[in-house]
# Entry
Amino acid sequence: MNAGERTFSAPSRWRVAHFDSLDSTSEEARRRAFSGDRGCLWVVAEEQSAGRGRRGRSWVSPRGNLYASALLIDPCPPSIAVELGFVAGVALARAVEDVGAVGVRLKWPNDLVLDGAKCAGLLVEGVSLAPKRLACVVGIGVNCHSAPESAGYPTARVTDALGRPVDRRALFERLATRFDQALAKWEEGAGFEAIRSDWLDHAGAIGERIRIEDAGGRREGIFEGLDGDGRLLFRGEGGIEAVETADLWILPASDDSPAAGVSVSRAREGRT
# Structure
């Protein structure tokens, strides 16, 4: 059921489509892109029946949390569309701080964590449109009221960082504003260095032990930050390497078992 376009508000150049229930806010944004939507659109749902994360992983989506996807049409050259993940990450971290949460940090490349436990995630997807146009969908899910208990990794709620219930409408409005501001700062890629710096200001685990697993195998080392393209800088036995795609775990200081934190990866298809 479409609940109208005024339930949630966003900066003036954005429209908001709010639904009671959807399969996925990102799928709805994709459908609208193929139907000729001009973009600058947020799709928000009270619940999702088929929410998803990276690599097709399911995203549990009960009522009480925030599920929102932004649709952008031709926001940048396709080769740098992956940078939108960092733009959205900065916006998400700042929005959560704006509503009073403390102690939340960004986890490379697409999670927001509280004491190492995932409280929000984001996913950027590209859609090719004719003739030679690009739609980008930025999906964001925030554990406000509840967090999945059987996700296979530690989870948390933004409520835990606030010490009180989260006003989802206020959180969305701050997210929409912060995303608009971050997009302006990014300048279609020209300002990525400034966004990268902002992301690092909110990053967790820099200088800490991590475990990564990619085509080169599983290995442990130190998270040294991001390079100029947003790749993970990993210092292992062979020195520092820039990692584009990997599963990553934050390790505790005392032993070799994986610490709190979800396995994540970054896909940079088409990056030049």
Q: What stands out?
A: Helices lie at 25-34, 84-98, 158-162, 168-186, 192-201. The two ends are 42 Å apart (CA to CA). The chain has five helices and twelve strands.
